[in-house]
Specification:
With about 325 residues, this protein is an all-alpha fold. About 70% of the residues lie in helices and about 0% in strands.
């Protein structure tokens, strides 16, 4: 918290700020690089704990992506260099034993795991689009991962350390945000969540848990990346085009305040984590029924949001008048 507070104080004088853009939600000048104090607190604590050394590959991957995100925040990298590095890191983690066992084929599982890690890394980056949203999703998901991994395991220790580190930042990121995470935070945190969700699932004795757990733990990033990845091409736009067409933005279009939209998505994340824990710990017909109801509700919710007509100004890449944000 102290590190983030210091960043908020010095950022304006050094020009470490984000300015409003027509295709982005924020319409204020806000401090950036909030991921730096998050990861500084996280890594400085990790170095003092020998118990987390078995997860060195995961820590290294977050470090590389933090540097990549910092360069992107400062200079603006294109999607191709980031994708290449993300694929290489994901392949390394798969080689180290992080496998999402969805099929009987080991090769198919390796490819699906690689796709999952790269996809969720970028999906988490995409939901960093509204005050407090991404940080809150990460905190809830990390708490669930720690419980599923076993509180005494190295993975749980890492998850809890990152959760606490993000918590100090989150207080400054709540609406109206005083600092943004930036790619320096969202890319490594998304990478950690993608890998840790698979690692937590594969620790469980129930084979069926491998199928559901990662998706339940990270239901909001997965929901959102599917929403924009499908609706953008259907409307003649590239997937990589930035716009105010994410889940959170569509909820505001429906009349919710910004705080209300974020709270709803945090609630969905909490339900996903709770169902994941119940699936492993209880796995009764009642839990199966709740899980089925949750998935059906999400499908109808997704279809409803996908059909919403968005204002053209929310999709435009051309500079224009600022839009007043409700909430």
């Amino acid at each position: 918290m102290a590190l983030t507070g210091a960043l908020v104080r010095v950022a304006p004088g050094r020009g470490w700020v984000v300015f409003p853009r027509q295709n982005r939600w924020n319409q204020r000048v806000v401090a950036q690089f909030g991921g730096i104090p998050i990861l500084t607190a996280f890594w400085s604590t990790d170095l003092l704990l020998p118990a987390v050394r078995p997860q060195a590959a995961l820590l290294f991957g977050t470090g590389v992506l933090a540097l990549l995100g910092l360069v992107d925040d400062r200079r603006g990298l294109g999607p191709k260099p980031k994708l290449v590095i993300e694929v290489l890191l994901a392949a390394w983690l798969v080689h180290a034993g992080v496998i999402y066992a969805l099929t009987p084929s080991s090769i198919a599982n390796q490819l699906l795991t690689l796709l999952w890690i790269v996809g969720i890394t970028n999906a988490f980056n995409l939901i960093d689009n509204m005050d407090g949203l991404a940080a809150g999703v990460a905190i809830i998901a990390l708490a669930a991962i720690a419980l599923l991994a076993g509180l005494n395991s190295p993975l749980a220790v890492l998850a809890l350390l990152l959760m606490v580190s993000i918590g100090g930042f989150w207080l400054f990121n709540l609406h109206p945000a005083r600092v943004f995470m930036g790619d320096v935070g969202s890319l490594p945190i998304g990478f950690f969540l993608a890998c840790a969700s698979v690692m937590a699932a594969t620790r469980r004795p129930n084979p069926g848990a491998d199928v559901f757990l990662p998706a339940l733990l990270l239901v909001v990033p997965l929901f959102d990346v599917l929403l924009v990845s499908i609706t953008r091409p259907l409307n003649g736009r590239a997937i990589s085009d930035g716009a105010r067409d994410h889940t959170s933005h569509r909820l505001v279009l429906l009349g919710m305040s910004e705080v209300g939209a974020v709270a709803l998505l945090h609630g969905i994340t909490f339900l996903g984590g709770l169902l994941a824990i119940c699936w492993v710990k209880v796995s009764t017909p009642w839990v199966v029924g709740c899980l089925a109801l949750f998935l059906v509700a999400l499908i109808f919710f997704w279809l409803f949001l996908a059909r919403l007509a968005l204002p053209e100004s929310w999709l435009s890449m051309v500079p224009g008048p600022l839009i007043r944000i409700p909430g």
